[in-house]
Amino acid sequence: MNVVSLFSGAGGLDLGFQMAGHKIVWANDIYEDAVATYRNNIGDHIVSGDISAISTDSIPDCDIVIGGFPCQGFSVANTKRYAADERNVLYKQLIRVIVAKKPKFFLAENVKGITTLEHGKVFQMILNDFSSMGYKVTSKILNAADYGVPQTRLRVIIVGVREDIDFEYKFPRPTNSETGADGLPIWVNVTEALSKIPDPNISNGLPNHDYSKYKLHFNGYLGHRALKPDKPAPTVTARGDDKGGVVVLPHPNGQRRMSCRELATIQSFPLTFAFSGSRSSVYRQIGNAVPPLLGYAVADVFNQYEEE
């Protein structure tokens, strides 16, 4: 199917849709480094700029609109979050495009925190807004580790099916499990995921394989917690700004921070996927991304739809 992507970032969700056989016909993001990364790895169909200033007439028709709308205002990691946060209304740009393009389907992704903001009132408002456009709306919190991502990343996926479309979106069944239940492979652990990546201090030719020298102080706080080598990594975050200060997970060896390349691997990006910008910018792009393997899982479900 033809897909329009909003708030595309470096392209993790889009890459997942491509892996599932769909075609991204138009994409947009405001962050120049992320746009450069996207253009170099996925395609030049991405437009740089503020989506609120872009006319829907310039956006092509499509079967699916997707978007991981900015989540800083919603995230439980943001202790100052509140319902009036201006970043919380960017999902309305997603609505504007959906209303104009009337795609068969839409898929929105966000942090688990939106489901509890203002005691769930904000999330219900979002679901009601999506439903009012003439879509059958369903949502579910998925754990990326259940889909082969070496990271316990919880994300809420919201899917809309246009009311005249005879199709029921059923969320993908897990391909992995924490204990190996139901005969599934056990979660991919962080040691296994990084096993083929050489030491970044040795010349190796891998793109973005350098790391923050910010010292490790294991004190239990975010970014200062030792990883369990036999478990998936905790959620990769994008806290901080483009001037530095990003929170970077420690390497499981406990001796240093993960390199950008290693963190991208924890997000399930291919080794050949090269990011543009400074190291801090690359860390941010990786932390903001949807893991491509999770993107593939939710995108592949649409292949079950057969148009009459």
Commentary on this structure:
By secondary structure, the protein is α/β, with parallel strands linked by helices. The chain contains eight helices and seven strands; from the N terminus they run E-H-E-H-E-E-H-E-H-E-E-H-H-H-H. It has helices at residues 12-19, 32-41, 91-101, 121-131, 190-194, 260-266, 279-288, 292-300; strands at residues 2-6, 23-29, 46-48, 64-67, 105-111, 135-143, 154-162. Strands 3-2-1-4-5-7-6 form a seven-stranded mixed sheet, sandwiched between helices. Helix 1 (12-19) packs across helix 8.
Q: Helices, strands, pairings?
A:
Layout: E1 2-6, H1 12-19, E2 23-29, H2 32-41, E3 46-48, E4 64-67, H3 91-101, E5 105-111, H4 121-131, E6 135-143, E7 154-162, H5 190-194, H6 260-266, H7 279-288, H8 292-300
Parallel strand pairs: 1-2, 1-4, 2-3, 4-5
Antiparallel strand pairs: 5-7, 6-7
Helix pairs in contact: 1-8
Descriptive terms for the model:
8 helices, 7 strands, Rossmann fold, 7-stranded mixed sheet
Q: Look up the CATH topology of one domain.
A: Rossmann fold
Strand content: 5-15%
Order of helices and strands: EHEHEEHEHEEHHHH
At the first level of CATH, the class of one domain is: Alpha Beta
Average residue-wise pLDDT: 90
CATH architecture of one domain: 3-Layer(aba) Sandwich
Rg over alpha carbons: 19 Å
Secondary-structure-derived class: alpha/beta
pLDDT < 50 stretches: none
CATH superfamily of one domain: Vaccinia Virus protein VP39
Tally of extended strands? 7
Strand arrangement within the widest β-sheet reads: 3-2-1-4-5-7-6
- Give the helix tally: 8
Summarize the amount of helix as a percent range.
10-25%
